[in-house]
Design goal:
Elements lengths: L17 H11 L21 H4 L8 E9 L5 E9 L5 E9 L5 H12 L4 E6 L15 H16 L3 E10 L1 H10 L6 E7 L5 H6 E2 L2 E2 L4 H7 L3 H4 L8 H4 L14 E6 L5 H10 L4 E6 L16 H11 L12 E5 L8 E5 L7 E8 L5 E2 L6 E7 L11 E5 L7 E15 L5 E9 L5 E10 L18 E14 L4 E7 L13 E7 L5 E7 L7
Parallel strand pairs: 3-4, 3-5, 5-6, 6-9, 9-10, 10-11
Antiparallel strand pairs: 1-2, 2-4, 7-8, 11-12, 13-14, 13-23, 15-22, 16-21, 17-20, 17-22, 17-23, 18-19, 18-21
Length: 526
């Protein structure tokens, strides 16, 4: 029997060249959120919910073999098939459908946990990667069709019950969501880990601004996308074909989303849940990019097994999560209270609070006098100097305040150039002045009305820019301050391509503001 061990986050890229490992880590493992320094306080191992502690002992030895799965255009997809060493028919799990499956043995160690408990499993190499012939075009309609055909082939085998699920992390999480909206008849449920809602918005163009972080991944994995993605700066059918959001109405299978509050895909995971709360469950932990295994707050494998037993084996003893949302209140370890469960997201008792950006650099619930403040753009200083950003912060909090949702920054600004960019960074400032990045959002001025067509920018004219700041579940401790920084640069989250010039930000009465979502008592903010 295989020995099934825990996999540390990010291990799924083993077997590739060092350059690819570094590129993937930089492109996909980075976050827009800083972890606080560890203390002696450690978070709980997992939520106190029978779903996460579910267990069945292993029963079977595991066999494996290479297979080449035929797809509709006459090509094949190279997969590794793992099966229980026993006669009979078993449900199937596409454990990973990815371009990183060159080392199938490592993925096999993870798949073996389920196989030893009565599942067939496939680890598949996307067209044009590994041993699969053809051209790799990540998340394209062609790749989705291939994945669909793999699922249907898997279901039709004589050793299959015909009930198929799919899971995967990052690339495999994206694939799981994208094949689900294609609705293969035998796909019963999915578990996407760190998955997208939209490849354009989550990864390539942040608020319409190209993300510098992704270029290393593109060069290492799919170099042709350096050209094709740049040819589609606006949201068009090219991106709709690589989007879950464009087909949310077709995301109908039971979906267990595993999200990390420190992960770059948290915005997409939350949006998927909000779009489909009836059939999507959301688990958001204190995790960076990758499998939760080995990270603080590790939820173990029990929940995954319960999910598959419930949906693929129709086992009434296998529970579902007690609540639609299971979320770890970060930072960890430190101020957060740990695992919480909610019926919706944001939680039902959350409220919005509008904080004005003041001419005196304050962030306050009160009104301040109107004014205009300026910062420069692309003056060739790195990092951005004081003249290239504006900062606003609250007074010390009188009591803890919990952020639980997204933030909308309404920035009223003018530009001396014919376009511009706004980056909004939200931070937790400790009494000693040290700061931890909580979250951020970005918007290109000419994309203020959406990403499908440009909205012209007239120099000197004031525009209202609605900047979507990615969600979080974060406890600000009493005595800390909430800080918002506005600039035109946030490298490498976005390219430093804003036209040189000056940006004038309207503050005070009728000026710029940040609307935050807080849980429970918000009176700590003044």
């Amino acid at each position: 029997m295989w020995t099934v061990g825990k996999r540390r986050a990010g291990r799924g890229y083993a077997g590739k060249s060092l350059a690819l490992v570094v590129a993937v880590a930089a492109a996909l493992g980075g976050t827009a959120l800083s972890r606080p320094t560890a203390t002696a306080v450690e978070p709980a191992a997992g939520p106190a919910d029978p779903f996460f502690s579910y267990h069945r002992p292993a029963r079977y030895d595991v066999t494996s073999t290479a297979v080449r799965v035929p797809v509709r255009d006459g090509s094949v997809i190279a997969c590794r098939l793992y099966r229980p060493a026993a006669e009979g028919r078993f449900p199937g799990i596409v454990y990973e459908y990815t371009a990183y499956a060159g080392n199938a043995e490592e993925f096999g160690r993870g798949a073996a946990y389920f196989v030893s408990r009565g599942y067939n499993a496939l680890v598949c190499q996307a067209r044009g990667s590994g041993d699969s012939p053809g051209h790799l075009d990540p998340f394209s309609p062609q790749e989705q069709r291939d994945n669909y055909d793999v699922i249907e082939w898997f279901a039709a085998q004589p050793w299959s019950t015909g009930q198929i699920g799919q899971m995967g992390v990052s690339y495999g999480g994206h694939s799981s969501l994208l094949v689900a909206v294609n609705q293969p008849p035998h796909l019963e449920a999915i578990i996407p880990i760190n998955g997208i809602h939209d490849w354009y918005a989550n990864t390539i163009y942040r608020g319409g601004i190209y993300s510098a972080r992704i270029r290393g991944w593109q060069q290492a994995v799919a170099p042709h996308t350096l050209r094709t993605y740049a040819e589609h700066p606006l949201y068009d059918d090219f991106w709709r074909g690589r989007s879950v959001m464009a087909r949310w109405d077709r995301l109908t299978v039971p979906t267990l989303e595993i999200n990390g509050w420190y992960d770059r895909y948290r915005d997409g995971m939350v949006k998927n849940f909000q779009a489909r709360p009836g059939n999507v469950w959301l688990v958001s932990g204190p995790w960076e990019h990758g499998y939760p295994a080995g990270q603080p707050g590790d939820i173990g494998l029990g929940g995954y097994l319960a999910w598959w037993d419930h949906w693929l084996r129709d086992d009434p003893r296998a529970p579902l999560p007690r609540a639609k949302v299971t979320s770890y209140e970060i930072p960890e370890p430190g101020a957060g209270t740990g695992w919480r469960q909610f019926g919706q997201w944001p939680p039902a008792d959350a409220r919005t609070v509008r904080l004005s950006l003041g001419a005196d650099a304050t962030l306050t619930r009160g009104r301040t006098r109107p004014g205009i403040q300026y910062f420069d753009v692309n003056t060739d200083t790195e990092p951005a100097g004081a003249g290239e950003r504006l900062r606003y912060q609250s007074r010390p909090l009188r009591r803890d305040v919990v952020l639980a949702g997204s933030i909308t920054a309404t920035v009223r600004a003018s530009f001396t150039a014919d376009d511009g960019a706004v980056a909004v960074v939200v931070e937790d400032v400790a009494p000693d002045g040290s700061a931890v990045r909580i979250t951020a959002g970005w918007l290109k001025a000419s994309h203020r009305a959406g990403h499908e067509r440009l909205a012209p920018v007239e120099p000197g004219r004031v525009y209202t820019l609605p900047v979507h700041v990615w969600p979080t579940h974060y406890r600000l401790s009493a005595g800390h301050r909430l800080r918002v920084t506005i600039s035109s640069d946030d490298y490498p989250e976005i390219d430093s391509t804003a036209p040189a010039g000056r940006v004038g930000v309207r503050v005070g009465a009728h000026g710029s503001a940040a609307t935050i979502t807080v849980l429970g008592n918000s009176s700590g903010l003044r």
